[in-house]
ATP-binding cassette subfamily C protein
Amino acid sequence: MNIFKKLGWFFKKEKRRYISGITFLILTAFANLVPPRVLGLMSDQLDKGYISWSEYGILILIVIAAAIILYMLRYFWRKQIWGGAAELERQMRSKLFEHFMRMDATFYQRHRTGDLMAHATNDVTAIQNVAGDGVLTLVDSLVTGGSTMVAMMIFVDWRLTIIALLPLPFLAVGAWKLGDHLHNAFDKSQAAFSRLNNKTQESVSGIKVLKTFGQGKQDTAAFDKMVDQTIEINKKVFKWDALFDPLGTLIIGLTYVITIIYGGLLVTNHTLSVGQLVSFIAYIGNMVWPMFAIGYLFNILERGSASYDRVERLLYEKPQITDENADFDIDKEDIKGDLDYQIDRFAYPDEPELTVLKNIKFTLKPGQTLGLVGKVGSGKTTIIQLLLREFDKYDGRITLAGKDIRNIPLKVLLNEISYVPQNNFLFSTTIKENIAFSDINASDEKIITASKKSDLHDDILQMPADYNTLVGENGVSLSGGQRQRMSIARALLKNSQILILDDALSAVDAKTETEILSSLRKERANKTTLIAAHRLTSVMDADLILVLKDGQIVERGTHEQLIALNGWYAEMWRRQELQNKVGERLDG
Ligand SMILES: Nc1ncnc2c1ncn2[C@@H]1O[C@H](COP(=O)(O)OP(=O)(O)OP(=O)(O)O)[C@@H](O)[C@H]1O
């Protein structure tokens, strides 16, 4: 019952809906008492040996009227109570989604995507059930069960009521206990089924890799094992189901047997009329659902409460990247200026002892380009992540036009940055919408200009419905280079003060790379660009190149200065040049 208290805020908000819904439910319970009673009166008429058609007609009319009224009442309570449950679902889902949108990188490091999806689906459904099935079973078990029992006592006989109903509480206990097992088994079976689905999807998506590495047989064996496990888990569902159904039949059957024996005795004694016994039997039918409802109620409330706690715990987590220290007087014009990094030390929150960046210090003037190079894992992406404020805790500061980025409102800062990440994400929609993602109202002309600058326009014209071609699972699959260029077009459309390319040209050929870089230089004359790359040709024209090793700057300067230095950069440059020449010979 605690969960009703926890959801008090919702029931208070939806007070009118629930008061009317519960009123309709109570009226339904009372209207339900009429047909059995009328059935009894009809039977008594028959028992007299003659039929008074006028009285009989009135009874028939009463049954028809009760049926129509019941129909309407049921419609109204369903509309109100199920409507309430749907509203709660909507509100919980929006709350969670907004929360997910607000959270930062550390939150997504702590929680796996699958778990977050489960909270947003299974837990929300369990909470929604409290506001729908929970309210229904509570009112039904109390009002329908209570009023039917009172009707049995008043219209029939209190001794028969007590004795005949003795087995029914076992129905409630059975529904509660077995229902819980059944539900658990069902959850496990659903989880097993989704694991099987994931496996199938992964194997089908990775079929080329599987075959190339000759792993087909092993994968089939692993799949067969998983199918066997899933079947075992499913068998448990059938086991609990097989115990559950006959239990209901047994208990209800027992109730009828007691009624026939004891009730029959009372009829032969003339304590009861035949009509009363008929009414009683019909009332037993009315009692079955409320007994099940009590059992279900416990399950619904327990599950709802556990799910609500889980969701609350998640919602309680506060994002660490906030506008807490923001100066809201700062707007986009105030941050046009030098980008200055003065980082003494940075460590990721999950490994605070491990220094990932040390002494990263440089200044870029508007219009300048920075090149970040170095071995894998040397800290290039981390430097970028700090500018994007994915992490705020570090020794030192990063400033834009002299303003600490942690004091710039997030919206203002991020609006001025276009970021092309290593793993670019495309949505399953049209090419046009994917490019216009940063500015959904962008004109076709602007979209085409952006894709021309990223050397993508000609590729798009080759596609089945050019800019309206769908990409992703239901549309064309794009090559790695096309995906990268589409992300660049998306970033260029935003035309921000700072553009970040994180290994964003790795999948395009050298010629395309040169074309894109030269159009970028023209486009971004007064704007700042950061390029992290493995291929040194991507950064050779940069105003400043930083070579990183284990999170520290080990070489710095322009391309010419670094070649003259004859260190890691010069060595890599020679190697990459040699590779290019060999490649050209082979192609030729
Ligand atoms: N979220 C994270 N939590 C903890 N450690 C991380 C995290 N992301 C990266 N690291 C570690 O920080 C170091 C720097 O990684 P980073 O991604 O910045 O390197 P990189 O130079 O961009 O590498 P690559 O060239 O492969 O993109 C690596 O040792 C990496 O394992």
About this structure: The beta strands are 339-346, 357-364, 369-374, 395-400, 403-404, 417-420, 498-502, 528-532, 544-549, 552-557. Residues 109, 348, 350-351, 356, 374, 376-382, 422, 503 surround adenosine-5'-triphosphate (CB under 6 Å). The chain has a mean pLDDT of 87.
